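hey so i finally got around to running the thing on that chain from the lab meeting. sorry it took forever, my laptop kept dying and i had to restart like 3 times. anyway pasting the input first so we r on the same page abt which one it is
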Amino acid sequence: MSNSRTLTKDPIAEAQRNWVRNGWEEASGPMAAVTAIMRVQQILLAEAEQVLKPFKLTFARYELIALLSFTREQQMLMKRASALLQVHPTSVTNAVDRLEDAGLVKREPLKTDRRAMTIVLTAKGKKTAKEATEALNQELFLQTGFEPDEVESLIGILSRFRARSGDFEETSAP
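ok and heres what got predicted. didnt touch it at all, straight out
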């Protein structure tokens, strides 16, 4: 994964050296780690968005239809989707608006509480989720450039960090 703007030097390594030169040696490594994680996120998100472009999906919208596709009945309360995707309910509402306009999901009031809304994956949404997942698997997830042992290390490191940050209970970490 390289692009036409490949730099000849690592700017994050340079930033780390600047931190050390300015007397912030103790913070230099963590700063470089945080900055590198944020840059990697930008790179991977751009790759994902490129793969999803033919499906007219953003990664956020893909995550929602993928989540629905994994449920037994291809439906879920909007409140539950918000919690599982770890995004604000407004973000889910916006994604559902766009997905509904595209015919990939529909909203249905909950029979026992008409104030609550259920998101239902349509047949078109199910097909799109399947095809988009296959494309992401082939064009991104299997071609990240990470070695298999690096993947396992990253999963462990990031899971432990997320658990310590209160993202989920430590006992459920892999």
